[in-house]
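Record type: ASSEMBLY
Status: queued
Input:
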Amino acid sequence: MLVSSALVAHTTNLDLVVRHVLAGLGHGIHAGRERGAGVEFSEYRAYAPGDEWRRVDWKLLARADRYYVREAERDSHVAVWLVLDATASMAEPSRSVDGLTKLQYARVLLACVAAIAQRQGDAFGLVVCRGERAEFTPAMRGPRQLQRVLARLNDAEAGGQLPGADTLRTSLHFSRAPGVVCVASDFLDWPSPLSEAMLRLRRMRHDVRALCLHTQAEADAAFDTGPSYRDPEHAGTVYRFGRDVKETYARNRAMHFDEVARVCRQHDVPLLQARIEQVPGEVLRAWLRSHMTGARAA
Amino acid sequence: MNGMSLWWWALPVVLLPILWHRQKREQAKTTPFASARFLPAAEPKQQRVWRWSDVLLLLLRCLLLVTLIALLGDLVLAWRGDTVLVVPGTPPAVVDRETTGFGNAQRFTLPDRDAVTWLHAHEREFEPEARLLVVGDVVMPAVLPRFRHDVVLRTAAAPAAPAERHVAVFSDRADAWRRLFAAADGAWRVVVDATPGARTEVIVWDRPDAPPAGLRAPLWWVTHADGFPELAHTAAVDGMRWADSPRGRLWQADGWPTQDPDGARALFAAWQRLHLGTQPYTAPAQALVPDAAAPAGPASGALRHWLGLALVVLFALERTVTHVRRR
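Status: finished
Output:
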């Protein structure tokens, strides 16, 4: 079953959405999960909801009357870092789907990536950039970490601006192990501390994957001409949309995102441009494969 | 509705200052728009709200317009209630006797005997339910008057006092002229003065030479046309020639002074008819039936003076306040 963006808009249960999205995704992406993992026993760990029953040590249950899970030593130490841009501009709503914002969409996609990482046994952490701060959740493995990350994602509210370059540099200091960095943002600020951090991580040979979110109205340059508009991150100026400025808007926007795409291509950062009205499953699939195909769904 | 009241349709003009004085507000309500940076910055939209700036000036301007329209539309306020209209010269005793049933009515003295004409001009000043009583020697109109109000005429012909007519005679035959004037009887009495004065109504010039330049009178009876060049080219009507001159109106006949009584009466009748005007009859006492379809009288202009004054004052105030506001 494919989850539509309308469901994303109206569901607060992130876990449920993630299950639906991943169910619609098929098995292709995480077919090789756990392979090689668990070959070498590492430690016992208390059972947590979400652990698979076959990993429960039944003999230990019989002895101790408690559920324990066998943790395996992994060969790979790939950490997945989820970077969520939760600045005020991410509250931009879809003008066609009620209640759907860029932030909700980004949240669902990052939650899906977290769930996949958890299923593959990878460690995953979260960085939420909002209000000039970077809220940092260290990378760990396991279902509890998934619940923690989902809760953090659920709590993320859009507001403020991106943190400064120094703040981001100290937050993203996970540079030793090779990692996958999934950045979901609208990239309206470019260059920005976030973009510089992305490029720096890429230069440090991390696998950086960018998801740039648009709305259908932005892509079509079709907005209500009635109200006055303001930039949520740069107050003070009033904007007006009309037929006379539609072309200017479309041209400026195309120039901006062309520049974003050019810089990403130059630094070998796969960038997926998606509209939040698109089906999340398909966008997720395209995003995870973007490093292979370089495809851009705009 | 008479034609003048069409001006009242101009009253919506008052809406113009009311609209012009509406306050402008910057549109405070804005919608967040993430990609607004791709738009050119716009001026904050001005929004007119239903609140007014310079309320004093607005009031002055509205009042000015209303006053102007009222002046043009000839505003008449129906402010008179039951009224007793008294013809001047009516004895108070007669008024008191005739005003039974109009005990608490206002008394109003008419400017002259012609009550019907006055009422036509001022009928709009009376309240719709007002009853009117006219007392005195009212002039009888040519046709039965139609009023919207209940009008009662309680008339009585006043005993006319014999009017004095002053005459100055310049003649060698003064006795003949005195005899002629002595024949005047009845309604008026002729007084022959030695020298013409302010009350002199007729100068009899029975001399061949021209009269002195300063001598003036409403009417001249002239026997010799030689002294009056105005009479040279006029045609004779019934044996009498007449002309208007700076001295007054000139009548000239050859046979004057008339010796027979009939001729004298005819002369006095002509004097009365042609020069003094006919004496109107007294209208009969009656109650006029109110007629709702009666045409409203012409605009009386009762408030014209005050409205004009108010207009000037308001205009001056408006200019002053505007000037003060600009500084």
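Annotation: Helices of chain B lie at 15-20, 55-72, 92-98, 115-122, 174-182, 261-276, 304-326.
Annotation: DSSP finds seven helices and 15 strands in chain B.
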